[in-house]
Amino acid sequence: MNLRCAYTDLDGTLLGLGASLFTDHEGKFSMMQARALEACSRAGVEVVIMSGRRRVQVHEDARLIGQSSFIFEAGAAFSIDQEMTVLTGDFELDSELTVVEQMSGRGVPELLIETFDGKLEFHEPWHLEREMSHLFRGEVDTGEANRVLREHGHHDLRLLDNGAITRRMAGIETAHCYHLVPNGVSKAGAVAAHARARGYLPEETIAIGDSVEDLEVAGSVGRFFVVANGPERDPGLKAAIGAYGNVTVTEGRNGEGFYEAVVTSLVS
Q: Which pLDDT tens digit goes with each residue over 163-185?
């Protein structure tokens, strides 16, 4: 394929244990991610981070890998050469309040935490200083959570599952990271919008991730790679893969899987 762009999740994908660019899934030093980034650079392939992290965090991460565009807060917005495009759909924006402040003013985070008592909490300390999405951790059924939101009149919002995390929670075997976002927000939508802005055809792009939310990006790119640790930690992801015809599960975990996805695409 004529690869022009690779979209990648950070935690659990490009990054190894401890959220480091230079560790593997066990925390041992690894150059696999750096080698894959070098291969992309030599081939003229743009690498775009698609993350649930805050804008300032992802901006710095993009700078560290030498890239000028990135997707942040689970697809709520993307930036190209310091120009930001917001993708909050029909959510009514307030010029004086951030989306997070608007959701807080409506009491939505408290509604979800009280409804799923002991199963959902803020993902401290990364829930602070956010603009577009509230960040939680726990173990909930997003379908049930979104039903609760609709029943309380919050039709313009949804809770999405951004995958399993290593953070421990009492009474929960494998905690997940969740984002409360405007209803139209998704990584898949952000990837498609970024590709249009750059002039990339779907068949000229790939994406790599480790969660169900990442997997939805498969519909926006030519080929999607799930790193091996994703379905190992999340049975729901394993079950969802069959709905897409362009998905490959890598043999490698985390950065090794990222390397495998890049090299496979460059030589095919």
A: 889 888 989 999 999 999 999 99
Beta bridge partners of 205: 5
238: domain CATH number?
3.40.50.1000
Provide the residue count of the chain.
268
Q: Do residue 196 and residue 248 come from a single domain?
A: yes
Largest CA distance in the chain: 52
Q: How far apart are CA 109 and CA 10, in angstroms?
A: 25
Q: Provide the 3-class DSSP secondary structure of residue 207.
A: strand
- Please state, in angstroms and as integers, the Cα–Cα distance from residue 205 to each residue in 117, 161, 182, 220, 225, following that order: 41, 24, 26, 9, 11
CB 32 within 8 A of CB 255: yes
Distance CA 257, CA 27 (A): 15
For the stretch 23-64, pLDDT in tens is 999 999 999 999 999 999 999 999 999 999 999 999 999 999
> Tokens at residue 266, please?
């460059």
Q: Which amino acid is at 172?
A: I
Q: Is residue 94 part of a domain?
A: no
Catalogue the E-assigned strands of 10-115.
46-50, 69-72, 77-80, 83-86
* Judgement on whether residues 162 and 104 belong to the same structural domain of the protein: yes
Separation of alpha carbons 100 and 109, rounded Å: 10
Last residue in a domain, options 161, 182, 203: 182
